[in-house]
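Long-time lurker. I teach an intro course on protein structure, and each term I like to show students one example going from raw sequence to a predicted 3D structure in token notation. This year I'd like something fresh instead of my usual example. Would anyone be willing to generate the tokens for the chain below so I can use it in lecture? Attribution to the forum is fine with me.
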Amino acid sequence: MAKKKKITRKQLLKEPDEFLTFSRKLFRFVMEHKDQIAIGFGVFLTIIIIISGIRYLSDRSENKASALVREAMVKYEAAVKDNGPEKAYADVEENFQKILEEYSGKDAGKIAKVEYAGICYDAGNTDKAIELYKEALQDFNVHPSFGNLILSGLGYAYEKKKDYKTAVTYFEKITRGPNPLMKDEAFFNLGRLYAEMGEADKSTEAFKTLLSDYTDSMYIELVKEKVN
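-- Reply from a regular --
Happy to contribute to a lecture. Here you go:
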């Protein structure tokens, strides 16, 4: 895949000062940095997969499922690098379907569902991604950290369908929940989505919350001067 040109903060801030102009630049920023977000998401899940495999070493079925997920992800990452997400999705679709059919009750199988949802999203199969994320949300309803990851995935998926109203509901669930994981990103996404929907007051409120409560966020410099 061709490497996308990174937009610098200086380029973002030199445009006219109109609120909606800025919000659209934020929108493009997120779209152009989805790869980094996806990479971080994948690394996190890979770590969990490894931990899961160690924890259930005595469970042969769980261990087998963990190994299959790792193999599928290695295969996918190689295919993405060589041929892009659509071809990579086709290459591993059978692998993940087998894992979900045979090990859906195992922890590794549940994690595979989240991984596969992300793969579907990257390949443009947004409806399938939403279906898998919703199933995964039930699987991890007692794990708040995973819940936020999945809610974020649903938010991005509905945004990709341009259903901004539904996307907002999922990011709002993250901001209202007890777990702090990804809350700063959720407020950032609410700020730009509300702007896209023409709700400038709500957008400003979300950005100001990000500025006041999440001063170490990676998004802070993008909104600081404009909102202040």
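Some talking points for your students: The longest helix spans residues 60-83. The chain has twelve helices and no strands.
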